[in-house]
Design goal:
By secondary structure, the protein is mainly beta. The protein is built from four helices and 38 strands.
């Protein structure tokens, strides 16, 4: 059905203005497949242990292994940082921003860069093992996106934050590194050599990250489809199509898997529960015209996931899809949450990072703020909360460049899109202010 793009654009920006897991059994550490960490009880955020400065925004999520924390930055570097001291072990330079997160398998770390390559790097010395050239990595974009002006201008999607993060599928003596690409393919390459094993063509860029369970790969992309593929061959097992409304289409999150069900959010905007064997819909939760870019985490029959325009961390019943409660942040929650013990950790787009007691129904929490948020909140936020129209200062939001300026203002706060990792009684997360933070837990 043909839609009125101008009316839809106005509706879209009025929204802005108003206000478990399983994985292939291997020794793989993956930034998105493993979101539950060891811990006891409720552990609020304590004192700052250290912070490490890069020269670009951080959108990728940290990963911890063998006494090191690894993080990528828009400055094009992958950094290995000493977990105890916060000092640099080594860094590896690519020729593009690093918005991909990581997998580690047998002392090799895997990730993608906007230079169009996916890399395998030795974690001990930072030396390149191999790189694989895709058809090119880029942000989603088009002329006159969503009816914005001028209609002849090429516009990158300002909320397309990530590249696909690789996962390693190990089966016996062989191992494959699997990832999506902006060129529309899902690739499987030999984890040791980088040689192509198979590729699967979709109908759009794939910036979602794969999750593997029982020899199946689950991954979605900008063509609005979630795919289940055979990990060995790349053959399609089933597909599930989400909505395709302008401004409300695409899959950026990864799936969570529990009890034979696959759970994921989309921009359309729903949270879905599918049968893992057949791909048939079991239930869907209406996120109230709020995108779900965050990847869900599951504990005690409850799904936890962040939303954009409702600024919520949702607690959803696994079996019924009914909302149990919600915790309200101060802005978009694109950060995928992590759970340790009875605590869930996540950040929001205003530069606040939260620790919420899972046994309190959203009532008990503490948080820390980036230094820039403390300094700039009164000038950028309205009553401590994101308000797109307020930040625009009466600028015409039909004009793309004005929207970009607003997003750049929000980034000054130290927006947290990076997802946390918990290790050795410390929580780590990245920020758009360029810092990787390490906070002790109480």
């Amino acid at each position: 059905m043909k839609r009125n793009f101008t009316s839809l654009l106005l509706y879209f920006f009025l929204i802005f203005a108003s206000n478990a897991f399983s994985q292939n059994k291997s020794n793989t550490t993956n930034a998105f497949s493993n979101r539950i960490f060891d811990g006891k009880g409720y552990q609020p955020i304590g004192d700052l242990k250290w912070k490490f400065k890069t020269n670009g925004k951080i959108f990728s999520s940290p990963i911890a292994k063998n006494g090191a924390i690894y993080i990528g930055s828009e400055d094009g570097f992958l950094y290995s940082i000493n977990e105890k001291s916060g000092k640099e072990n080594w860094k590896f330079k690519t020729n593009g921003a690093i918005h991909s997160s990581f997998s580690i398998f047998e002392n090799i770390i895997y990730f993608g860069s906007f230079d169009g390559n996916y890399y395998a790097i030795n974690t001990k010395n930072g030396k390149e093992v191999w790189k694989f050239k895709t058809g090119g990595e880029h942000w989603l974009g088009e002329n006159g996106m969503w009816g914005m002006k001028p209609e002849t201008q090429y516009m990158e999607d300002l909320w397309d934050f990530f590249l696909s993060s690789p996962v390693v599928y190990a089966n016996g003596k062989s191992a494959l590194t699997i990832f999506g690409s902006s060129d529309g393919n899902i690739y499987a390459v030999n984890a040791k050599t980088g040689n192509l094993k198979w590729k699967f063509k979709t109908n759009g860029s794939v910036h979602g990250s794969p999750v593997i369970d029982k020899n199946k790969i689950y991954i979605g992309g900008w063509d609005t489809v979630l795919y289940a593929l055979d990990a060995e061959t790349g053959k399609e097992i089933w597909r599930f199509a989400t909505g395709t409304q302008t401004g409300f289409k695409g899959i950026q999150s990864s799936v969570a898997i529990a009890d034979g069900k696959v759970f994921f959010g989309a921009r359309d905007p729903f949270l879905f529960a599918l049968d893992a064997e057949t791909g048939k819909l079991i239930w869907k939760y209406n996120a109230e015209n709020s995108w779900i870019l965050s990847s869900a985490v599951i504990k005690d029959n409850t799904i936890y996931v962040g939303t954009s325009d409702t600024y919520a961390l949702l607690a959803i019943d696994v079996k019924t899809g009914q909302e149990k409660y919600r915790f309200k942040g101060n802005g978009y929650i694109y950060s995928s949450p992590a759970i340790s013990g009875n605590t869930i950790y996540f950040g929001d787009f205003t530069g606040n990072f939260f620790a919420l007691n899972l046994l309190s129904n959203g009532k008990e929490f503490n948080f820390v703020s980036t230094e820039n948020r403390k300094k700039l909140a009164t000038s950028i936020l309205k009553d401590e909360v994101i308000n797109f129209a307020y930040a625009a200062k009466n600028a015409d939001l039909y004009v793309y460049d004005n929207n970009k300026k607003v997003m750049d203002e929000f980034y000054k706060l130290g927006s947290i899109v990076s997802s946390p990792v918990v290790n050795n009684n410390t929580v780590y997360f990245g920020s758009a202010d360029g810092y990787l933070y390490a906070y002790k837990l109480k």
